Amino acid sequence: MYEEAGNANLIMLLHTAVYPILAALLVTWLTAKWKPSATPLGFVAGFLTGLIVIHTGLHFPPTRAMDFLVVSTILGLIAIVATKKLEVEKLKLIAVFALLAVSYYLLLSPVLKHQGGTASLSWAVLSGFATIIVFALITRGKSDDANHLPMLSIVIAAATASPVMSIGGSLLIGQLLGAVAAASFGYLAICFFTKTNSQSGVAVSVFILGGLLAQSHVLADLPVWVVIALGLTPIVSAISSRVFEQDNSIKSLIIGAVPNTLIAGTVAGICLWQVWPESSLY
Question: What pTM was estimated for this model as a whole?
């Protein structure tokens, strides 16, 4: 019995963390050598690897809510292109918001269809509006190669949200959030050591992180305040970026990440306390 439990835990670890991070490391390294602007494909490869091994019932073309995470990933890549091509800041935000609204609609409409199209559209617009605020805050300011805090904030947010989701909501979504954290970390690590700008990967990672958090409320009945609290933790990086000067050193990155880690950890702890099930986990 204990051997079977150990094997199950090992498989879960491989699917949630090891495979996504290895895929992200490899693809990010290859793209950094080939074309640095294409490095977000490393995050995409890492997350999709995790999605395929964790959600074994993935369908294409998409039919269920989880299947549309692939479409959300594609929309996130389109958002990266839009932010690079559009010169006016307001147009960039409008384009990303529109893509976010479409992403949320596709992710949520399969489970909200019994409430009608208006409910799905309302959820999509509200979720997109909330996410674009977070996106604008964490990407505002310096966008040079030395500032990796925005991407690190995604790693921290996903990593701290994963256990909350796994215990209080859905193990599947919790594992996928773990895959987001692992893929983001692998992508960030290569960008850091190759001195490549990692901020271009924030857009696509926000699409996936926000989509999973939104689904956790609808699919797993996680309280909406828990979802909002977990989703707001990345904005601490916006403050850290202004307080702590980044110089592309590990020491600088760690110092800048301390506030984000403390706040995200505290928020996750409070949320976990609130959603902890009354019955035994075993």
Answer: 0.91
